[in-house]
Design a protein that fits this description.
single chain, mainly alpha, 88% helix, 0% strand
Length: 104
């Protein structure tokens, strides 16, 4: 799926993850086992999914934090360039203005 079709990469990954969880839960519930065994397997599976989701969330936070940091650095750099350009423009204007004043 691509962005042109209206689905982001994160949406696809989350949908796949949720489908996997639902499928695994169905298999555990429908498998011929004793109730105790099924309950234990579901509990273990739930704990595993919780840990995986926590890891995924941590990775997403790190990615967002890194992206925000790079964005701030980029803006700071561009802000500095713009301020330099404005100062250079002011200086050029003052030079031209003083030239025109001397010629008159």
């Amino acid at each position: 799926m691509s962005h042109e079709e209206g689905y982001s990469g994160h949406t696809v990954v989350i949908s796949f993850f949720l489908g996997t969880v639902a499928g695994a839960a169905a298999v555990l519930l429908l498998a011929p086992q004793a109730r105790k065994e099924s309950a234990e397997r579901i509990r273990e599976f739930g704990q595993d999914m919780k840990e995986r989701a926590s890891d995924y969330l941590d990775q997403a936070k790190d990615t967002v934090s890194s992206t925000v940091g790079r964005g701030r650095d980029f803006l700071d750099e561009k802000r500095s360039l713009i301020q330099s350009a404005v100062e250079a423009g002011k200086e050029a204007y003052q030079k031209e203005k003083s030239k025109a004043g001397h010629e008159a």
